[in-house]
Amino acid sequence: MKKAVVSPGAEVLLSGAPLPKSIAAKAARVGLITNPTGVLPNLRPTYDVLAELYTLAALFSPEHGVRGDVDAGGDVPDYVDEATGLPVYSTYGPGKGAAFRRMTELDCVFFDMQDVGARYYTYQYTMTESMEACAAFGVPFVVLDRPPMIGCIPQGNILSPAFSSFVGKYATAARTGLTIGEFARFINETEHIGCALTVVPCAGVTRGLYYDETASPFVPPSPAIPTVDCALVYPGTCLLEGTNLSDGRGTAKPFEMIGAPWLRVRDAIHALSLLPHEGCLFRETFYTPYSAKFRGERCRGIQIHVTDRAAFRPFETALRLLCVIRAQNPEFAYTDPEFESKLFGSDALVSASFDCERYISALDAPLAEYRKKIEPFYLYES
């Protein structure tokens, strides 16, 4: 299949995309929130592009760091970047307020990172919190948009505002259905942030596009998302993070394989075969994680094989998987019910009376309303 030739927002900017006059001059002091995905299709870093166009004064780090070398939830410190000589200020963790104050000293802040299209992913909240800081001091904010990782297809449940956190901050779907630039537009308007926001759209993007259908090299957006296939199941199997099941971290197939030393695999696969599971198959597997849960222990597992991306529904698939395992295995537990509820966007899942099929059958109406809300902020055609 011929690959789509796509230009991310950074490349469109380099080709002369118009920006507000206040940040059009070379003398403008700008900052960049970025990580290893902030590159052009030829893999030239965005910080090189901005240094050519403006006075690049600082880099700002999300979760996992500017260089992508920090594990999930790890400490991301301030430091001087050895490659650029620029100061790096961390927007992740308890000291992030200092980074936001640094943004107020600049003429403009740019954002360029690849999102995966899932509500739980923290980069989008780093972006919106940065937008809030810039709005408070009148600093323009520019999002250099990127192609969708797993297509712009909203799916799953809608977060209840009572469960807002850094793994789900707004009333969005589990699979958001938005690029990072569209997400910025949506939240800036609906949450009344009031940021002086400019989004530089991509060229060559359609809503149903998957990243591996583009001609651009794939750069993992974070250590545990090594492939597009992994990103596709992530809006579902990330829900396992608050349980005592391995989510596949520490293997070659994170989020595609789940398991535990005690898992009754064949019973689970049989039960799943009797439930709707469009676009995927389940396979018995065995693995020994080299990190994370059950490190060094042999796990009995299930691998999700996606056979039809258009039909596959990651949220519903993972929810059924979790509920089947919970029913069949007395060893199963929610290790952190509060965190699990934040991921899920409500405390319904951790309830002993949770009815999986009834819950799934009620998803369509809220999702239809969500689609209506986000459509005005689309930048790309289907």
Structural commentary:
The chain is an alpha/beta fold and 382 residues long. The protein folds into two domains: 9-219 and 372-377, 3-Layer(aba) Sandwich (Rossmann fold), CATH 3.40.50.12170; 228-350, Aspartate Aminotransferase, domain 1 (Alpha-Beta Complex). 28% of the residues lie in helices and 15% in strands. It contains eleven helices and twelve strands. The strands form three sheets. A seven-stranded mixed sheet has the order 3-4-2-1-5-6-9. A three-stranded antiparallel sheet has the order 10-12-11. Strands 7-8 form a two-stranded antiparallel sheet.
Summarize the structure.
With 382 residues, this protein is of the alpha/beta class.
Strand and helix map with partners:
Blueprint: H1 9-14, E1 29-34, H2 46-53, E2 55-61, E3 79-80, E4 87-90, H3 96-103, E5 108-112, H4 123-137, E6 141-144, E7 155-158, E8 173-175, H5 180-190, E9 197-200, H6 228-237, E10 257-260, H7 265-273, E11 280-287, E12 299-306, H8 314-328, H9 337-344, H10 356-361, H11 364-374
Parallel strand pairs: 1-2, 1-5, 2-4, 5-6, 6-9
Antiparallel strand pairs: 3-4, 7-8, 10-12, 11-12
Helix pairs in contact: 4-5, 6-8, 7-8
